[in-house]
Amino acid sequence: MSSSSNEKTKRILSIGELEAAALPMAPKMARDYWLSGANEMQTVRDNRSAFDNYRIRARALRDVSRINNRPQQLFGKTFEIPVGIAPTGFQKLAHEEGELATARAAQAKNWPMGLSSYSNTPLDEVKKAGGDSVVFLQLYVFKNRDTTEKLVRWAEQTGYKALLLTVDTPVIGRRFSDVHNDFKLPSHLVLGNFPESSGSGPVDVGVEPESLSRRGFADDSTGESQAGKANVLDPSLTWEETIPWLRSITKMEIWVKGIVTSEDAQLALDAGVDGVWVSNHGGRQLDSAVATLDSLPEVVETIKGRIPVHVDGGVRSGADVFKALALGADFVWLGRPVLFGLQYNGQAGVELLIDIIEEDLGYVMALSGNTDISKLSTKTGAPAAAEGEGAEAGAPAGAAAPPGVDGEGAGAPAGAPAALGEGAGAPAAGALGAGAAAGALGAGAGAGAGAGAGAGAGAPAAGALGAGAGAPAAALGAGAGS
Ligand SMILES: Cc1cc2nc3c(=O)[nH]c(=O)nc-3n(C[C@H](O)[C@H](O)[C@H](O)COP(=O)(O)O)c2cc1C
After folding, report:
1. Which end of the chain, C or N, has fewer beta carbons within 10 A?
2. Amino acid 390: pLDDT
3. Considering the entire predicted model, what is its pTM?
């Protein structure tokens, strides 16, 4: 909970204040790029408002003079709290030191960091700056597999622990403001991981679908050599082909970022990945995708503790971190707030952001009567009741039942917030299905499962559509039926 020594950062107390201070300092094109989301930005808003569907049950007189905020290990290292810096591209848009400043802040504060494929700084330099804190290389797989393979091998040689394969980006989502601004990497910035490229070079940094078939590059169908294939995102990736291929070229762990359904969580397990990261790219890809906090429980329930489940999207406070952990995440990541910190004051700004979150989480833990953060992070997806006092105190069996099960939460009044915390799920909590006001629809939704949309939510105001949509994203409140 140290406070930054930098005068400039003294009076900033929340991510909201940091954002308000940082944004006016940035050019419009950068600001819009950070804040943008796909299409009408429904999912950007939902990622945030999903947190409002939960409240925390505070316990009293529990000696909170000492709090253990340290999570289980990640890649053999114990980080400060179970929160890290998600990969975001082009960090030199925010500060001249870009990813180096972020990595130094991560190391100074003992937070982990994921580096974007689209870093402005070469991955080896970032690794050197951040040491053990730089753990993930976020990976986009290009049509030109030689380019991808080179990147993967370089990351492995440099000491990265894991590839973080982003699976929510078969094509780049349409962010209207970026299209209107004709967003481009300024000419003085380069793609550090692709030295032969620049913003106008062969790697796809475009924001419009047309960039997928950028002129001058051969298409797969021509059957040309790898060297002739485009360094653009490959929309033909599959579970069957892509994960085994990555396994064949690296010994690093392979994680997937962008899992938001139980079906894909199962496929990830079947494919033998080492971890899943629940994400919808901060709402920048599919608009109307289910909020990540609402997707989290069904993923947690499917994974059942066999591999780690991480999450990002809309996390802006200690309470948000608490809620994501209580719903079963092992680790929580921040995207845009890091860019705000970086813009505000480089490394010191990112450190300030970290201080804000750590301090706030400390308050939430103490004020809610919780002393051990690992107790919030159950493997079942149930709130802390599964391992906490609520369970010992004879809370009904339903209290520890994982959320996200068909029909769970039936009868719970829609729209009221769910309660998280030790003993949540006990009747007193009145734990309700978060997201009850919105159902989840999707491919397969018709398969007798349509009824599952908004399961338990009573009359859902909106359904959720999607593959296997019978498995509802809607009924999330653990023990909500009890
Ligand atoms: C400006 C920006 C750039 C991003 N670049 C990448 C990227 O290169 N690769 C990736 O997998 N995710 C990228 N993301 C998504 C983040 O990793 C993360 O999923 C998201 O920002 C989390 O949501 P939050 O911003 O609400 O915290 C980007 C997000 C933003 C806002």
Report:
1. N
2. 35
3. 0.83
CA 39 to mean position of chain CA atoms: 20
Per the annotation, the verdict on 281 as an active-site residue is: yes
Q: Which residue has tokens 């440099």?
A: 158
Pocket test for ligand 1, best of 336, 339, 350, 357 (most atoms within 8 A of CB): 336
Whether 73 is covered by a domain: the verdict is yes
Return the best residue to mutate from 48, 88, 102 for the ligand 1 pocket (most ligand atoms within 8 A of CB): 88
Domain that residue 48 falls in: 15-214+230-380
| pLDDT 10s digits, 102-122 | 999 999 999 999 999 999 999
Hey, whose CA ends up nearest to atom 15 of ligand 1?
A: 281
pLDDT of residue 230: 73
Q: Which two tokens stand for residue 256?
A: 């997937």
Question: How many structural domains is the chain composed of?
Answer: 1
CATH number at residue 366: 3.20.20.70
For the beta carbon of residue 413, count every other beta carbon within 10 angstroms: 12
Q: Has residue 415 been placed in a domain?
A: no
Domain assignment present for residue 480? The answer is no
Contact (Cβ atoms closer than 8 angstroms) between residue 232 and residue 208: no
Q: What is the pLDDT of residues 437-467, one digit of tens each?
A: 345 555 444 333 333 333 333 333 345 665 5
Residues with CB under 6 A from ligand 1: 33-34, 47, 86-89, 116, 118, 138, 166, 257, 279, 281-282, 284, 312-315, 334-336
The DSSP line for 7-19 is: GGGTT--SHHHHH
